[in-house]
Amino acid sequence: MRYPFSKYEGLGNDFLVVEQARFAEVTPQLAAQLCDRHFGVGGDGVLITGLREGRPFMLVVNADGSRPEMCGNGLRCVALYLADRGLVQDDAFEVATEAGPHFVRITREEVDGKQGANVQVRMRHASLEAEDVMSAQHGRFIDQPFALDANSVKLSAVSMGNPHAVTFDALEGQHAALGPRIEKDARFKAGANVGFAHVRGKDDLDLVVWERGVGFTLACGTGACAAAVAAVESGRATRHAPITVRLPGGPLTIKVGEPGTPIEMTGPARRVFDGEIDL
């Protein structure tokens, strides 16, 4: 049978978007097949969406078949898909995710010369409780030494509904080795997305993210939020001010308020093409 899908991207973080009512069950094996860039469509993950009891929702399956709780870039893509398909009537609405509901607002415009949209997302609040990310840790874990073999790096543990470990250490040339090493470290209860951040200037960060279950991606929305939170809490960036987080695929704008309040993320999303696949 032929099943429809749409390809969307946000800062180069690309996804197959499928409606649950129109697609076969997305098993881990099927997600890996679809996301294969040589023998499938290619993507960083599959986003499953539609309406449940009249309300928009999003589920995420990574390229390796694992199920993250949340995906910030994916949420912007799903928001635009829902609006493009007429499944929502307004440009501001709430999307249910496995990390809780998130409010989105779409502004249609050209993005880098291509027709698309900027999507503002009211992300959930960040948790700085280490036990939400790590085993045998309590309280905050911000800029703390994290032993790796004979050496150590300074990490901050931040949950955006999914687990993140952020470092501001100068580790150029070591990202490829440290990313998977930290991701799978047993001290993280469910693994971790690993953010390698560099302070470019006041409220201006560079960030590369090794995503759990995917590897390096061009952008990571929850990773950008976690890095901005870690920067604010460690005194490297300003609370309540727009923080530019520059990822390989382009910049996101993040605003961090008081602890326990939602994080605001703004960035682009774009439909690349629609297609069908035989299964």
Describe the structure.
The longest helix has 13 residues, at 72-84. 15% of the residues lie in helices and 46% in strands. The chain is built from four helices and 16 strands. It is α+β, with helices and mostly antiparallel strands. The chain starts with a strand and ends with a strand. The protein has a 16-stranded mixed β-sheet that branches.
Question: Total strand count, please?
Answer: 16
Percentage of residues in helical conformation: 10-25%
Number of helices: 4
State the shape.
Answer: globular
Structural class: alpha+beta
Span between termini: 6 Å
Provide a compact summary of the structure.
The chain is α+β, with helices and mostly antiparallel strands and 279 residues long. It contains 4 helices and 16 strands.
Task: Give a topology summary.
Blueprint: E1 2-10, E2 13-19, H1 28-35, E3 45-52, E4 55-62, H2 72-84, E5 92-97, E6 100-111, E7 114-125, E8 144-148, E9 151-159, E10 163-167, H3 175-183, E11 193-201, E12 204-211, E13 215-216, H4 221-233, E14 242-247, E15 250-255, E16 262-278
Parallel strand pairs: 2-3, 10-11, 12-14
Antiparallel strand pairs: 1-2, 1-16, 3-4, 5-6, 6-7, 7-16, 8-9, 9-10, 11-12, 12-13, 14-15, 15-16
